Amino acid sequence: MQQSNLLYFPALDSVRFFASVNIVLLHFLSSNLLSYSRGTFIEPIVRGPFLSTSMFFLLSGFIYSIIFDEQKKVPKLKPFMKERFFRLYPLHIVCTLLIFAITIYRTNLLNDTIYAIQTLTLHLTLTWTFFPKLGHHLNQPSWALSVFFLCYAVTPAFLSFLKKQNKRTLWLLLLGIWAILIFSAVYFTKLPNYFRGINFFSGMVLGKLFLNNAIRLPKRALLNDLLLLLAVILLFVNVRYFKAMHAGLSYHVVSPFLYSTFLLLLSNNKGIFVKILSVSWLRILGKASYYPYLVHALVIELLHLYLDKVALWRYNPFNNPLATVAIVVLLYTVCTAYSFRVKLYRSIRSFIIKRIE
Questions:
Q1: Three-state SS for 212?
Q2: pLDDT at residue 153 above 60?
Q3: What is the pTM of this model?
Q4: CA separation, residue 181 to residues 130, 142, 281, 317 (Å)
Q5: 5: pLDDT strictly greater than 80
Q6: 95-111 in b/e burial notation, b at 16+ Cβ within 10 A?
Q7: Angle in degrees, CA 343, 345, 351, rounded to 5
Q8: So where are the chain's domains?
Q9: What would the pLDDT profile of 188-210 be if each residue is shown by its tens digit?
Q10: Distance (Å) of CA 168 to CA 160, 162, 172, 212, 247
Q11: Helices (DSSP H) in 71-220: which residue ranges?
């Protein structure tokens, strides 16, 4: 595989989109906005979830490992954190404040002033995931943002560490991470959300192994497609059947393992599935997919506000397939447009700074 192909895997952008949609629909289901799917084949896929937040962590670690290794540089911590912070945090602030106002207006969950201020502070400071019992789950995506920023803070140092490792130590490191995952899933009833950041570092090690040609991938496109299809089937079996037997292993071990397999096969850039997932409009949606994840909790609150104050729950116009499609299309269209605005702003800002210098 040529070096130019290593820096960008178009199919992986589309995976972000499908993972984002799955998580959005999962929260729709738990918010009486997807009740019509209960008892159908859709429910186990959505509720599984078929593609969980762990996919985001694995994918991000995998991509960062490859990009910075190929560019033969380790990012400096301050500018790297600053770029990630200003790309994601402002939207989080806006969503959190709006959800806070809506929650106070439509419920009595934050009637206690001290508890309300404490809840808002935890979410704005991105510390709610570490102290979930101290505040209401105001803007649930804040937990993932907290964990991502923790992972970003360690990324430069971990990249420097990986650069010094050979294939053998990389394999030992990856096996050690999976051993921790298996042990934790078996012996702990419920793992805290921040623990899932370990998938980010698993993805980084996986990316390094991929670059070092330490993982043999199919040379034939047909075999690559068949293995991808098998991975998809096993993902369905996992969330539909194995989850009922052992939820911890299913969620924290089996799913991430299958996600890792999925990422490697898509990075092989062979076969019809890769071509399908490489279409431009899917990649565009995928690149902006983290914004809908950050915004969807606000959308749910707005829909519930209408149901509470206007429809009075006598009817629910949002609980049908057509409404779901319309909401998802609108959400991803607006967020994709926002993504382009952010990129344009960053380009103009970079241009002005270079001119001044």
A1: coil
A2: yes
A3: 0.90
A4: 19, 23, 35, 42
A5: no
A6: bbbbbbebbeeeeeebe
A7: 100
A8: 3-356
A9: 888 888 999 999 999 999 999 99
A10: 17, 12, 6, 11, 32
A11: 77-106, 113-124, 142-163, 167-187, 198-211
